[in-house]
Specification:
By secondary structure, the chain is an alpha+beta fold. Helix content is 27%, strand content 26%.
């Protein structure tokens, strides 16, 4: 027999085999198994939502205004200023769902967006709202533009955020008694042994 490799055809892959060594066959089979496993892991998954996650755009920020001031301003901003169609809203849960036109044609395709408001406290200690805007279509800057527009409308209507609460002054520390000098035993009173 010769030392030349013999080529055998297996299903869809040609595996080199030598007459004298079986190790090459096992290495080749191992490489095929690894390649198939890697291909299975890299295969695209079926999305579970109607919109792929790669097209969801999101932006979050903290607005230093109380939630009872942000909620009506957000409704007016989306409905009046941006002329978006409000689909659903719940003040207790803190969300607004809206549809917006994609492109310049108002009757064309529509995208869906959401605005979430979560009551919190800002780093200065003021009541605040964490605003999260997400959209499933439209330009990549749209969530940022909505958040910027809402913040500008709040500043225009409500003025600057209220100043942070003043820190409470520390409690006065009690004064230690005046020093009598080194400790000395008290002299015995009359009648004490």
């Amino acid at each position: 027999m010769s030392d030349r490799p013999v080529l055998r055809r297996r299903a869809w892959r040609v595996i080199p085999v030598t007459v004298l060594g079986r190790t090459r066959l096992s290495v080749a089979v191992g490489m095929v198994v690894v390649a198939m496993g890697t291909a299975a892991l890299a295969a695209p998954r079926v999305p579970t939502s109607p919109t792929p996650a790669s097209t969801r755009l999101q932006h979050s920020r903290v607005l230093s205004y109380p939630a009872d001031q942000v909620w009506p301003t957000a409704l007016r901003y989306l409905r009046v200023d941006r002329e978006f169609e409000l689909v659903d809203r719940d003040q207790e849960a803190g969300y607004i769902l809206f549809d917006f036109p994609v492109g310049t044609d108002r009757d064309g395709p529509k995208g869906r967006g959401s605005l979430e408001l979560i009551s919190t406290v800002d780093p200065a200690g003021r009541p605040a709202v964490k605003l999260s805007v997400s959209t499933d279509a439209g330009p990549s800057h749209l969530p940022h533009a909505i958040a910027d527009g809402l913040a500008a409308k709040l500043r225009a209507e409500r003025g600057q955020p209220p100043p942070p609460p003043r820190p409470e002054p520390p409690a006065p520390t009690p004064k230690p008694p005046e020093d009598d000098g080194p400790w000395a035993p008290l002299p015995p009173e009359d009648g004490d042994p």
